[in-house]
Amino acid sequence: MTFIIQKTLVYSIPLLIVALAGMFAERSGIINLALEGEMIFGAFIGAVAVYLFQTGNILVEHPQIMYVVAMIIGAAAGAVYSLLLSFSAVKLKADQTIGGTALNMLSPALVNTLALTFFSQEKLVMPLSTNFVLKNEDAGEFLKIFIDKAYISTPIIIILFIVLSVWIYKTRTGMRMRACGEHPQAADSVGINVDKMRYLGTTISGALAGCGGYIYIATTAGGTAESTVAGMGFLALAIMIFGNWKPLGIALGAVMFGFLKCIGAVSSSIDLLKNLGLPMYFYNIIPYFVVLVVLAFTAKKSGCPKAEGIPYDKGMR
Amino acid sequence: MKRAVSIVLCLAMILCSVALFASCGNKTYEIAIVTDVGQLKDGGFNEGTYNGAKNYAEKNNITYQYYQPANGANATDNDRIAAMRQAVKNGAKIIIAPGFLQATAMETVAKDSPEVKFVFIDGWALGLDNVTAVVYKEEESGYMAGYAAVMDGYTKLGGTFGGGGTNPACNRFGFGFVQGAAAAASELATDIEIKYSYKYGSGFGSSPELQTQIAGWYAAGTQVVFSCGGSMVQSVKSAAEETTNGKIIGVDVDQASLSDRVITSAVKGLSVSVEKILTQFYAGEWDAKLANKTSNLGAADDATGIPFDTSRFQKFTKAQYEALFAKVKAGEISISSEVPENCNDAAWLTAAVADNAHVTIVFDK
What we know:
The structure holds 2 protein chains of 2 kinds.
Chain A: H1 2-27, H2 35-55, H3 63-91, H4 96-119, H5 141-147, H6 153-170, H7 172-182, H8 184-189, H9 194-220, H10 232-242, H11 247-266, H12 271-276, H13 280-298
Helix pairs in contact in A: 1-5, 1-6, 1-9, 1-10, 1-11, 2-3, 2-4, 2-9, 2-10, 3-4, 3-9, 6-7, 7-9, 10-11, 11-13
Chain B: H1 2-26, E1 31-34, H2 45-60, E2 64-67, H3 77-89, E3 94-98, H4 103-112, E4 117-121, E5 131-136, H5 138-151, E6 156-161, H6 168-188, E7 192-197, H7 208-219, E8 224-228, H8 232-242, E9 247-252, E10 262-268, H9 270-282, H10 286-290, E11 294-297, E12 304-305, H11 318-330, H12 346-352, E13 359-364
Parallel strand pairs in B: 1-2, 1-3, 3-4, 4-5, 5-11, 6-7, 6-8, 7-13, 8-9, 9-10
Antiparallel strand pairs in B: 10-12
């Protein structure tokens, strides 16, 4: 049981944080299709940081601290990268869908070029064996979920998720940001700087996506960065839509996706599931099927921010 | 004004690209390596081939360069053709291409450029005089790794294989592994269980799915997992290092340095054989020894085996390994390499070990 919960979390945590990233951008009025690209870039820069730490013999004795630092650096990289999107969308009033798509195409190419230039390979493998896993075999069953065979990123992301969800709903800045996604003209009329709010939303979004990208490679590929995150960014977008642009829905969606993916992968190791004999494709299909059904029934009262994707024009009322 | 600026910019761009091409044009590379799906630095197949060429080239002061076909794991024949043509254009005299997927591309380019020689690793003779093929008896390496693991006391084994069941090299590795483990199980009269899967890693990459699947195996008691396919080892490593004791068997080249969980590796002598072929080529022996021929390399050529000195065995001794190796080399142990074209099916494997009561196959599909 503990095993399934842990493995569900391995999938869910990056999805959770990246879907929240998408929500932050869209709530401020910017469609962030570039989540995938931001994840790839954040993951790569995080990996570069760990590479430098290891070759420079910094923090090698403290893998957990190194992991957290790499997450922060990945987040910073994602934030910087997302500025390209917010600049084109806010300042240049460009089409956000096209801007996001361009960033998604730019990121793998950029990572390949950088990796080939500095490491003469398309993949950045860590010089030392990297594994940030925590091990506490004597812990109680419940605690084990978080501290045995688990990653420190899990509790950090859960806390961050709660804090940010409360922040966007309960604080003044958070509410202002949401207003800019619903009706920027009204927000502007009461003195809110729409451009600033949109920059803020997209930057937070980029940071979360970059952080999620590094967590993804650190927990599943020993920290090896490539020019892909296997479509996790797009999956996160789907989860955000499934979650109706709300944190609780996103959490539910991420856990459901994670759980079913996990069940599909381990079905042969659990007797109960083995006896059912369902192919892994079945489990892989369910979450998408559920998304379709849910969208079909809820599309009418979609929580989609009203002004997302529309460049803010002061003159338009 | 705007127009003037854009014209200037356009001219600058054209000049730049011309300069770039010109600077490229000056450099030629005699030995070219066109990689298989996966990455150059996959710590295995591509890297082993590349290292062989690199060693030879550096020893003899010959220029060398690698080319990775575009689109990574989804490279098409056209991408490979483009990479090979680029190699020819850059002055390659001999192109080394690992991976059976390169057949079509190699046939096309080899016909176009009869003056360039091609080395088809894991391939077969294409009926062209400028192509030579090298195949390995992977089943021997797999056999020795499986035998050693069971002799060392492991009873619950696993194997995850790349290529989705259609990669002949992976299939031979896997079949040999099962046969070796089975032989050791009868010798020791202990019961063993082998989990066998092609489920994830058809593109030889790491993924959370693979990591979860292997973590599931370790959690259900599997002690050692044979990771057979390029970068897949990264996910297996992640899964192993989450456990207290999970072990790994590497593939293609000695992967002991990757993690202290790697107990041994089923290697094939990629770099050794590439060096050998290059030596023969530069000695002018192409027509006599290599043209349109397939070299089938095994223990007899020291091209298969396990790297005992870097292995982390508890009980399996060097003497035991040497005895085993000698037997394989002399052909005293018959190891079958008869695998179906698509191995992603439990029936053939269960049938193959049906007469051995000590072995249970759990096929994870």
